[in-house]
Specification:
The protein has six helices and four strands; from the N terminus they run ααβααβαβαβ. It has about 190 residues and is α+β, with helices and mostly antiparallel strands. The chain has a domain of about 120 residues: NADH Oxidase. Helix 1 crosses helix 5 and helix 2 packs across helix 5.
Length: about 190
Protein backbone atom coordinates (compact mmCIF):
# COMPACT_ATOMS: atom_id res chain seq x y z
CA UNK A 1 0.00 0.00 0.00
CA UNK A 2 1.45 3.39 -0.88
CA UNK A 3 1.13 6.52 1.27
CA UNK A 4 -1.78 7.95 -0.72
CA UNK A 5 -3.68 4.65 -0.42
CA UNK A 6 -3.10 4.71 3.36
CA UNK A 7 -4.36 8.28 3.62
CA UNK A 8 -7.39 7.62 1.46
CA UNK A 9 -8.42 4.40 3.22
CA UNK A 10 -7.54 5.10 6.87
CA UNK A 11 -10.43 5.29 9.34
CA UNK A 12 -10.65 5.30 13.12
CA UNK A 13 -11.11 1.64 14.03
CA UNK A 14 -13.19 0.56 17.00
CA UNK A 15 -13.43 -3.17 16.38
CA UNK A 16 -10.40 -5.38 16.71
CA UNK A 17 -9.59 -9.08 16.53
CA UNK A 18 -7.99 -10.85 19.49
CA UNK A 19 -4.70 -11.26 17.58
CA UNK A 20 -1.82 -9.83 19.59
CA UNK A 21 0.45 -7.23 18.00
CA UNK A 22 3.97 -8.59 18.39
CA UNK A 23 6.71 -6.68 20.19
CA UNK A 24 8.60 -6.61 16.89
CA UNK A 25 5.72 -4.85 15.14
CA UNK A 26 5.23 -2.42 18.05
CA UNK A 27 8.94 -1.57 17.95
CA UNK A 28 8.78 -1.04 14.19
CA UNK A 29 5.82 1.32 14.65
CA UNK A 30 7.70 3.24 17.35
CA UNK A 31 10.76 3.61 15.13
CA UNK A 32 8.60 4.78 12.22
CA UNK A 33 6.89 7.25 14.56
CA UNK A 34 10.23 8.77 15.46
CA UNK A 35 11.00 9.39 11.79
CA UNK A 36 8.53 12.30 11.96
CA UNK A 37 9.61 15.86 11.34
CA UNK A 38 10.62 17.62 14.54
CA UNK A 39 11.16 21.30 15.31
CA UNK A 40 14.85 22.13 15.87
CA UNK A 41 15.46 18.35 15.86
CA UNK A 42 14.11 18.24 19.43
CA UNK A 43 12.70 14.71 19.11
CA UNK A 44 10.68 15.28 22.31
CA UNK A 45 8.61 12.09 22.20
CA UNK A 46 8.26 9.35 24.77
CA UNK A 47 5.97 6.32 24.67
CA UNK A 48 4.06 3.98 26.95
CA UNK A 49 2.78 0.73 25.43
CA UNK A 50 0.27 -1.30 27.42
CA UNK A 51 -0.58 -4.80 26.20
CA UNK A 52 -2.27 -6.18 29.31
CA UNK A 53 -5.97 -6.55 28.46
CA UNK A 54 -7.02 -6.61 32.15
CA UNK A 55 -5.08 -3.40 32.83
CA UNK A 56 -6.68 -1.78 29.77
CA UNK A 57 -10.17 -2.79 30.97
CA UNK A 58 -9.43 -1.42 34.46
CA UNK A 59 -8.24 1.85 32.91
CA UNK A 60 -11.42 2.07 30.86
CA UNK A 61 -13.58 1.54 33.95
CA UNK A 62 -11.66 4.19 35.91
CA UNK A 63 -11.84 6.72 33.06
CA UNK A 64 -15.60 6.25 32.69
CA UNK A 65 -16.17 6.90 36.42
CA UNK A 66 -13.75 9.85 36.51
CA UNK A 67 -15.38 11.60 33.55
CA UNK A 68 -18.94 10.82 34.60
CA UNK A 69 -18.39 11.97 38.18
CA UNK A 70 -16.96 15.29 37.00
CA UNK A 71 -18.87 15.84 33.76
CA UNK A 72 -19.03 19.58 34.53
CA UNK A 73 -15.26 19.71 33.91
CA UNK A 74 -15.66 17.89 30.59
CA UNK A 75 -18.59 19.59 28.79
CA UNK A 76 -17.39 18.23 25.44
CA UNK A 77 -18.06 14.70 26.76
CA UNK A 78 -21.64 15.46 27.80
CA UNK A 79 -22.86 14.03 24.48
CA UNK A 80 -21.40 10.66 25.55
CA UNK A 81 -22.84 10.63 29.07
CA UNK A 82 -24.98 7.54 28.43
CA UNK A 83 -21.90 5.67 27.20
CA UNK A 84 -20.09 6.37 30.47
CA UNK A 85 -22.72 4.49 32.47
CA UNK A 86 -23.05 1.63 30.00
CA UNK A 87 -21.15 -1.41 31.36
CA UNK A 88 -20.62 -2.68 27.80
CA UNK A 89 -18.87 0.50 26.65
CA UNK A 90 -15.08 0.25 26.69
CA UNK A 91 -13.14 3.49 26.25
CA UNK A 92 -10.39 1.64 24.36
CA UNK A 93 -12.72 -0.32 22.09
CA UNK A 94 -11.64 -3.60 23.71
CA UNK A 95 -8.22 -3.27 22.08
CA UNK A 96 -5.43 -5.44 23.39
CA UNK A 97 -2.84 -2.69 22.88
CA UNK A 98 -2.74 0.94 23.92
CA UNK A 99 0.01 3.34 22.86
CA UNK A 100 0.36 6.60 24.77
CA UNK A 101 2.51 9.36 23.28
CA UNK A 102 4.03 12.05 25.48
CA UNK A 103 6.11 15.10 24.67
CA UNK A 104 8.93 16.71 26.61
CA UNK A 105 7.59 20.15 27.52
CA UNK A 106 11.08 21.65 27.41
CA UNK A 107 10.62 21.61 23.62
CA UNK A 108 8.45 24.48 22.40
CA UNK A 109 7.01 22.29 19.61
CA UNK A 110 6.51 19.04 21.55
CA UNK A 111 2.77 18.85 20.85
CA UNK A 112 3.23 19.33 17.11
CA UNK A 113 6.23 16.97 16.92
CA UNK A 114 4.42 14.23 18.84
CA UNK A 115 1.27 14.66 16.75
CA UNK A 116 3.41 14.12 13.65
CA UNK A 117 4.89 11.00 15.29
CA UNK A 118 1.34 9.78 16.02
CA UNK A 119 0.37 10.37 12.37
CA UNK A 120 3.36 8.31 11.21
CA UNK A 121 2.36 5.49 13.55
CA UNK A 122 -1.28 5.66 12.46
CA UNK A 123 -0.38 5.47 8.75
CA UNK A 124 2.25 2.76 9.23
CA UNK A 125 -0.25 0.74 11.27
CA UNK A 126 -2.83 1.12 8.49
CA UNK A 127 -0.30 -0.27 6.03
CA UNK A 128 0.22 -3.30 8.33
CA UNK A 129 -3.50 -4.02 8.70
CA UNK A 130 -3.55 -2.60 12.22
CA UNK A 131 -6.36 -0.25 13.08
CA UNK A 132 -5.99 2.70 15.42
CA UNK A 133 -8.25 5.18 17.14
CA UNK A 134 -7.20 8.38 18.92
CA UNK A 135 -8.87 8.12 22.35
CA UNK A 136 -9.96 11.52 23.63
CA UNK A 137 -11.52 9.98 26.75
CA UNK A 138 -8.01 9.18 28.02
CA UNK A 139 -6.63 12.71 27.75
CA UNK A 140 -6.78 13.61 31.44
CA UNK A 141 -6.36 10.14 32.92
CA UNK A 142 -3.09 9.30 31.18
CA UNK A 143 -1.61 12.64 32.19
CA UNK A 144 -2.17 12.31 35.93
CA UNK A 145 0.85 12.14 38.24
CA UNK A 146 -0.33 8.69 39.40
CA UNK A 147 -0.51 7.24 35.91
CA UNK A 148 2.79 8.80 34.90
CA UNK A 149 4.51 7.46 38.04
CA UNK A 150 3.12 3.96 37.44
CA UNK A 151 4.53 3.90 33.90
CA UNK A 152 7.80 5.79 34.56
CA UNK A 153 6.84 8.90 32.60
CA UNK A 154 8.89 11.91 33.76
CA UNK A 155 6.86 14.82 35.18
CA UNK A 156 8.04 17.18 32.41
CA UNK A 157 6.39 15.02 29.74
CA UNK A 158 2.84 15.97 28.76
CA UNK A 159 0.27 13.70 27.14
CA UNK A 160 -0.25 14.31 23.43
CA UNK A 161 -2.08 11.22 22.16
CA UNK A 162 -3.52 7.91 23.32
CA UNK A 163 -4.20 5.31 20.64
CA UNK A 164 -6.14 2.07 20.86
CA UNK A 165 -4.62 -0.42 18.41
CA UNK A 166 -5.36 -3.84 17.05
CA UNK A 167 -5.76 -5.93 13.96
CA UNK A 168 -8.97 -4.83 12.25
CA UNK A 169 -11.96 -7.15 12.27
CA UNK A 170 -12.92 -5.83 8.83
CA UNK A 171 -11.77 -3.38 6.22
CA UNK A 172 -13.76 -0.19 6.40
CA UNK A 173 -14.96 1.97 3.56
CA UNK A 174 -12.86 5.05 2.84
CA UNK A 175 -13.87 8.15 4.79
CA UNK A 176 -15.87 10.93 3.21
CA UNK A 177 -14.68 14.44 3.90
CA UNK A 178 -15.84 17.94 3.04
CA UNK A 179 -13.84 19.83 0.46
CA UNK A 180 -10.93 21.79 1.93
CA UNK A 181 -11.68 25.32 3.10
CA UNK A 182 -9.17 27.48 1.27
CA UNK A 183 -8.76 31.09 2.37
CA UNK A 184 -6.21 32.11 -0.23
CA UNK A 185 -4.54 30.33 -3.16
CA UNK A 186 -2.86 32.63 -5.68
Amino acid sequence: MNVKECMNSRRSVRSYTDEIISDEVINELLVLGTKAATGSNGQPWGFVVIKDKEAIQAMSDEIKVKIHDSIEEYPYFRQYESWLTNPKFNVFNRANCIMVIYGDTSSHWYDKDCTLAAANIILAAQDMGIGTCWIGFAERYCNTPEFKAKYNVPANYDLVCTLSMGYMKMQMTPPERKAPTVFYNK
